[in-house]
Amino acid sequence: xxxxxxxxxxxxxxxxxxxxxxxxxxxxxxxxxxxxxxxxxxxxxxxxxxxxxxxxxxxxxxxxxxxxxxxxxxxxxxxxxxxxxxxxxxxxxxxxxxxxxxxxxxxxxxxxxxxxxxxxxxxxxxxxxxxxxxxxxxxxxxxxxxxxxxxxxxxxxxxxxxxxxxxxxxxxxxxxxxxxxxxxxxxxxxxxxxxxxxxxxxxxxxxxxxxxxxxxxxxxxxxxx
Amino acid sequence: xxxxxxxxxxxxxxxxxxxxxxxxxxxxxxxxxxxxxxxxxxxxxxxxxxxxxxxxxxxxxxxxxxxxxxxxxxxxxxxxxxxxxxxxxxxxxxxxxxxxxxxxxxxxxxxxxxxxxxxxxxxxxxxxxxxxxxxxxxxxxxxxxxxxxxxxxxxxxxxxxxxxxxxxxxxxxxxxxxxxxxxxxxxxxxxxxxxxxxxxxxxxxxxxxxxxxxxxxxxxxxxxxxxxxxxxxxxxxxxxxxxxxxxxxxxxxxxxxxxxxxxxxxxxxxxxxxxxxxxxxxxxxxxxxxxxxxxxxxx
Lengths: 225, 299
Fold this sequence. Notes:
The complex is a heterodimer.
Chain A: E1 2-11, E2 14-24, E3 29-33, H1 40-47, E4 55-60, E5 63-64, H2 70-78, E6 80-83, H3 95-105, H4 114-123, H5 139-151, E7 157-161, H6 169-184, E8 188-192, H7 196-203, E9 209-214, E10 217-220
Parallel strand pairs in A: 3-8, 3-9, 6-7, 7-8
Antiparallel strand pairs in A: 1-2, 1-4, 4-5, 9-10
Helix pairs in contact in A: 3-5, 5-6
Chain B: H1 3-10, H2 14-17, H3 25-63, E1 65-70, H4 74-89, E2 94-99, H5 102-113, E3 126-132, H6 139-149, E4 153-156, H7 159-201, H8 203-211, H9 216-247, H10 274-297
Helix pairs in contact in B: 3-7, 3-9, 4-6, 7-9, 7-10, 9-10
């Protein structure tokens, strides 16, 4: 589904990722961990085409991402839902409008049923906050809204960058349950986090592969987690 | 750009339009610039059309006439006038020729000497008005014959001062059209600046839209549509104010000469209606070009 083959990424004079190889198989669940600044966000950005590899090959849905034109890249991003650490909402639009935004940009806005949107927002526990503006939402609500927006187009892959970074333990468990639920629906999930307790909590709910970025390279994490 | 692309860029989509916040100084700037430019364009158009009419009128009126002046001692004046009329009656290309009466000559001189001019006491030459017919007057041939038969006759076919006047009027018309082109160019430049400023101010929104899978066309559309409609409405208001100004100009009159009759005539009144449409077209192209370039820069 998404395959990195000897991918390196250099920014300026510094190499952030070196010779990374990784496969995200359909329906798999991955944690990506490592210290701050190790390159977790960079790896996620490579996976959804916000950055292009300096060297190596990155295939997404059997397409070489470096060869995609701008329109093809847009179509790729509709198949990869992303939960950003800072959520990235349009503050002048309501929660419902923000969540429905991917439908609008993909031309499905006209056919989208309000009931489906409400059902999705109920699923993330925000069914009563439809008209709230993003600045009025709490950290947990923003993360759940970002998750709803990431999955509204029913993408094949869901990437989450530190989704529990700004929420309390209870909320992080709630978010984790939602992501596990998505995985059980067949979605491929990759969560970048430095929160090891989240990974430990997930072990009882899902069979997850834990990857660690260290020294610009990626490796399977051991039992010390 | 195909018709479908243009149609989709301009089609109203209230929800998609909400993606870009409607506020910002670029909105007022676009409205003001397109309004002011449309106002100026109305006057440039009026000037161009009026000077065109003037050039055509002068060219046609003066081209068909000539004047023969008889400078002779008083006792020979009548005889030379008679001889000149005879020559003219035999000349091909002269439709008619008649000697101006004393009253007509007084009327011609009265702007300079006043109405009570004692013409009979002054050595004023006799003027003969010649109206040209087919196949046109051979001025050089006529001069040769008059030189031999009417020594005091001087033929003025008006070309000496007709051509500079007509050329001046034509230059004024060209100036009007150049002004309209410059107005269009200035509008395009200002709207490009405003669109660039708006795109830069909304760079974060553009980034979010990209991350959720928006194509450049979707993003550009939100900006293009907004700037096109703003330019249209601004130009519409500017055009209406300009038309009101033209309506208030003095009517064309004999006394006022060129300074009156600067407005529109006949179907010319419909031409300013094109200004808002052209303003919108200029804004459309300017914003589309700016958006495509800026979106490539922001990638």
